[in-house]
Amino acid sequence: MTLPPLAARHCWHAAINPLHSTVYFSPDTPKEFAGLGITHPVAVNLAARSAALGAVGAGTVTAAFYNYRHDFVARHLPAVWDTAAPEEVLAARLRAADATLRRLLGEEAVESPELAEAADLAMRATEACTRHARALYSAHADLPVPEAPHLRLWHAATLLREHRGDGHLAALLIAGLDPLEALVSHTATGKGMTPKWLKASRGWEQSDLDAAADRLRARGILDADGELTEEGKAVRESLETDTDRLDAAPYEHLGAQGLARLAELGGGFVLKAMAAGAFPADLRGKA
Fold this sequence. Notes:
Elements: H1 7-21, H2 28-34, H3 41-50, H4 58-65, H5 70-74, H6 80-83, H7 86-105, H8 107-110, H9 113-126, H10 135-141, H11 149-175, H12 179-188, H13 195-202, H14 206-218, H15 230-246, H16 248-275
Helix pairs in contact: 1-11, 1-16, 2-7, 9-11, 9-16, 10-11, 11-15, 12-14
């Protein structure tokens, strides 16, 4: 089925990825994890996203996450699993998602038929996701589907988010962008994380970011001011196009009408969450 150009990409960026990502910036997440004895912010982040894989070590997570510094990951994994088992972490993450969505969206929205409709649409899209070569998606696909509509929506968003993300890693390899080059070139688009957040959340030093920028300049992807060249813009767009192709099946399965409705409903909930302060103001941009 032919979808409108970029419709699936728009839905993912506007309605899917940010809805899932609310838990990583929510005060409810460290609160729930503190109850397990996990208090370091980096350990919370790493455990929350990797728990579906089981009690894995740093090597597995560095591979699956792609753009984290390995020794940064190794400071917390696998040691975090001595504090709490992956099953406990997953339960805490779901409790955090529950509290986060209720706080950001309000009880009326959480109990609304529109949210239930969005959950049904998103779950329908996941029916066409594929497991092969998609480690994070496949691990999450083994988890039980929550009954509450707002948690079903969050679960479906998680599946769709990781499905596209796993495909994106393949596209990055084809594009020849290493972890740092991927991050720095994304920041140069104005849509990626700021250097402040890259260092805090991924473990890189400024010297690492500077060296990656030098490599990108040598390849003609960045100019002397750190902006994307025309070639750089083409590389980033080709990267997204390849990712779109690898991630097309769920949205084609949903169909144009269903996709438009999911984007409308999910995007509305995301805007409501953002207005309630779901994300830091300095998260994205070039500075």
